[in-house]
UniProtKB/TrEMBL annotation:
Belongs to the HisA/HisF family. It comes from Acetobacter persici. It holds the Pfam family His_biosynth. This is 1-(5-phosphoribosyl)-5-[(5-phosphoribosylamino)methylideneamino] imidazole-4-carboxamide isomerase. Residues 10-175 form the N-acetyltransferase domain. Pathway: Amino-acid biosynthesis; L-histidine biosynthesis; L-histidine from 5-phospho-alpha-D-ribose 1-diphosphate: step 4/9. GO terms for cellular component: cytoplasm.
Length: 446
């Protein structure tokens, strides 16, 4: 699939001839300038071409490129630990970040680093490591500005010409929430991570107000039954705006007819919401092929939720995660532990935890877990099941189904203090009925 060239930073899975030539050009210029990510001498075009083509075939490596006016001018690689290295599965190494000399001083290095970091975070990595020769002063200041901790110096790090140079080792703890910002925004404070920390988390949980769409209107169902729908608004865009005005930082939209039909069925309403709001939105319901996924992401949806295909076509989820890192979320909806699909009309043999592990392996950015028997019933979340799931995987888990009052949110907040993987909660009926006020909810979850 071809990727939009308008995106400043992107992960690439294949390179067109033009992109390959531009990448080699940038690498060549960086080598000549003395910052050639390990190469000391110019290599010639053929060597560089073979290198980048080969690199795309290595399963542990991911290549990210940065563009200027559509042309590749730099890149970076993320390298995961070998599969047998289970105890370091949460670590990712950033390697070979460079921007060609002719494209410097435009903030592109910072943008590249920021997006690569976001992608790593979204894939569930918790620690980013990297090392750099001490001659690379610009890179060093970039990493320091981005909050990387310089934890050690290797006195005999590399040999450049007739000189041995030392190398600086950096690390950064990645928090669990992906910044929705695309622009680079650096903290000037260097973090001092406690690598042994198991202390309670004080991250605010994200509240995702649910906008469930049925026949163009905003509804809530009970236990997912289409016949048991309460219509809350016939203007979903106005409703979405109201939730933004109430202070929510994300929207969670579901195309209910789409989930039953296996294809989007409320596209005009979704598009109207996108036009009316600026906060990031995740969208699910009926997204069953790459075309549907790509077109909603291109339309401005920040993350898509895949439910039925997570069970029925995991290869598609894997491929989507490779093409759109950080933008694919698995929706795991369970009835007594068994995963339901097709608008929850079908129940599979698969256990929620088993699917969660498979989805983590596929590379999803997060998992939304819904206990169907509680959805729309206002009796409280299934916190035990959600916590168990969050402790099984390393990707963020969003709780859903059953919130009826502030106590239910407070109980989740408390559970989240001991469960760092819990990232947020979806609230529907309780918000629409006024049982939970946005202000109070946000305070309780902070
Ligand atoms: O309420 C329902 N019957 C329902 C619902 N809310 N059915 C599906 N869904 C949601 C899932 C997930 O977000 O929670 O639709 C999404 C999955 O859709 P699909 O088409 O990928 O299975």
């Amino acid at each position: 699939m071809s990727m939009s060239k308008s995106k400043l930073v992107q992960r690439v899975l294949s390179l067109t001839d033009d992109d390959l030539q531009a990448l080699c050009e940038a690498a060549d210029a960086a080598i000549l300038d003395g910052g050639g990510f390990g190469w000391v001498q110019p290599q010639g075009r053929q060597v560089l071409e073979r290198y980048f083509k080969g690199l795309l075939l290595v399963p542990e490596r991911m290549l990210f490129v940065v563009r200027l006016k559509g042309e590749i001018v730099g890149c970076a690689q993320l390298v995961r630990a070998p599969r047998n290295n289970e105890c370091q599965a949460m670590c990712i190494t950033l390697m070979h970040l460079f921007v060609a000399p002719y494209a410097r001083n435009r903030g592109l290095g910072g943008a590249l680093l920021h997006e690569v970091e976001n992608a790593a975070r979204s894939m569930g990595f918790r620690v980013m490591n990297m090392d750099v020769p001490d001659t690379q002063t610009a890179a060093i200041s970039l990493f320091q500005k981005a909050g990387f901790l310089h934890w050690g110096t290797h006195p005999h790090f590399a040999r450049m010409g007739d000189q041995t140079v030392s190398g600086l080792f950096f690390t950064k703890l990645l928090d669990t929430v992906r910044s929705p910002l695309v622009e680079p925004s650096f903290s000037s404070q260097a973090e001092t991570p406690d690598m042994t920390a198991s202390s309670p988390s004080s991250r605010p949980l994200t509240l995702y107000p649910a906008i469930d769409l049925k026949d163009g209107a905003c509804v809530r169902l009970r236990r997912g039954e289409m016949e048991d729908a309460t219509v809350y608004s016939d203007d979903p865009a106005a409703q979405a705006r109201a939730w933004c005005d109430a202070g929510f930082k994300w929207l969670h939209a579901v195309d209910l007819n789409g989930a039953f039909a296996g294809q989007s069925a409320n596209a005009p309403a979704v598009q109207a919401i996108l036009n009316a709001t600026t906060v990031p939105m995740q969208l699910g319901g009926g997204l069953r092929d790459m075309k549907a996924i790509a077109s909603w992401l291109e339309a401005g949806v920040t993350r898509v939720i895949l439910g039925s295909v997570a069970v029925k076509n995991p290869a598609l989820v894997r491929e989507a995660c490779r093409i759109f890192p950080g933008q694919i979320v698995a929706g795991i909806d369970a009835r007594s532990g068994h995963v339901a699909t097709e608008g929850w009309a079908e129940v599979s043999d698969m256990q929620a935890t088993e699917l969660a592990l498979r989805m983590q392996e596929a590379g999803v950015a997060a998992i939304i877990f819904t206990e169907i028997s509680r959805d729309g019933m206002l009796d409280g979340l299934d916190i035990d099941q959600t916590v168990a799931l969050a402790n099984t995987v390393s990707v963020p888990v969003i709780a859903s189904g059953g919130v009826g009052n502030l106590d239910h949110l407070a109980a989740l907040r408390k559970a989240a203090d001991d469960t760092p993987g819990l990232e947020g909660v979806i609230v529907g009926r309780a918000l629409y009925d006024g049982r939970v006020s946005p202000d109070e909810a946000l305070k309780v979850l902070a």
